[in-house]
Structures are given as structure tokens and as C-alpha cells.
Amino acid sequence: MLALVAALAGGCAGKSPAVPVGTADADKFLFDKGNAAAKDRKWLNAREYLRNLVDNYPQSPYRPDAKLALGDTYIGEKSTESLLLAANEFREFLTFYPTHPRADYAQLQLARSFMLQMLAPERDQSATRDAIKEVEIFLQRFPNSGLMPDARVMEREARDRLSEAEYNVGFFYYRMKWNPGAIDRFMDLLKSDPGFSNRDAVYYHLAECLYRTAKPAEALPYYERLLREFEQSEFLDLTQKRVAELKGGVPAGK
Question: Can you give the pTM of this predicted structure?
Fold first, then answer.
């Protein structure tokens, strides 16, 4: 992976733009030009200016922000290759400037580079797990960051994606009427991610599996949790009927 990133970086670097002769504060010139190009979504042009600054002005006060802006251009492009390069830029920033005031931003953008690589729930979830890992590092290292609300949203989105993948497996077992397998999956999901946004579906299908296997006393609490925690759900009507049935003494599994 490191070799690939290095190769991509070398291929994308291009020729550094020249600073006009007599320009005062050449590093600021490059920084401003790079940011202006990035604002216009001219990613390659922006990277040429920013890379020149990062590589050739190591003592510049603009260098850390240029490094971050460089990573942001790769985030903005959103291709598979650019997201790999974005992750590399933000990792390098955290290595070079671990105590910088914007280290929290770098860590969150590192997580975002993996968020943007996440696949649909039925596909490989490696990028999702990487995103969760990097968000958790942010939460541990920067508990007082002003970016905490964004981090929480990202964490929930990534965990939901991973949990949706687990739910789909359990639902497959549910449809196949392999109740023991479905019950294990659903219970493990609720244990690993109790805040799963679509847990109403988990509650309902877990309760239905228990109902099918003539375990009404175990099924009822999950039906009731759905009713208690969700004012809106596609399973509300069915759940209300089940609760009325179970509390009315109708035999389970019928």
C-alpha cells in the first residue's frame, strides 16, 4: 500500500509552478494560489502550488495548513486513488505535527478518507472498519474538539453501515427460517451496537424468531422495546398486534 501511495503521489506531482521573479513572501503566494484553485475545484492546479510550498519551504508558517489543504484536494476529488493519497497526507501531517492546533482536523479527515471508500452493506466492509477505527482515535485524542459533533455523526454513519451488513445476514437467516442462526446474529448485533439506527428491524425480527420457537416470554420484551423506543417504524402495527396477542394469552407460534 505504501509503495502504491508513493507511486501515485509521484505520478500526480507534476511540475512545480514557478513563483514570479521578485514575488515577496513566495510561500504565501503559493498558499493563496493553491487555496484559490481548490476553491474552484481545480484539484491538479491546487496541488501543484501546495506541493511546491510543502516540499520547498519547510520552515514556512503556511506549511502545516498547506499540507492539510493538499489532503483536502484529494478528498475533494473522491476517486479511489485520490482517497488513498488523502489518507497518506493526513497520516503524514499527524506524524510531523502531532500537537498542532489542527491535528484534530487532520485526524477527522483521515477518518473521512475511509468513510468515502465505504461500500454498500452487502459488500466488503474493510473501509468501514478502518473509518470506525480512525474516528475512535479522534474521540479518544480530542474529546474537547469543536469538531466532536461531526465526529459523532461520522461514527454513527460508519457503525450503521457495519451493523446493516450484520443485520442483512441475520435477516437472510430469518427468511430461510433458520431461527437459531438469526437469533444469534440479532442478539450479537444489539450487543455490539445498541445504538444502531435501524434496530427497530432487529427488535422485530428477533422477537419474531423467538415467537416462532415458542418463547413468548423472551419475545415480548423486544416487541415492547420497539414500541418504547420508536414513534415511527414500519413494524409498529405488526408489533402492536403481537403484544396484544401475547398479553391476551394467545399461544405463541400460531
Answer: 0.85
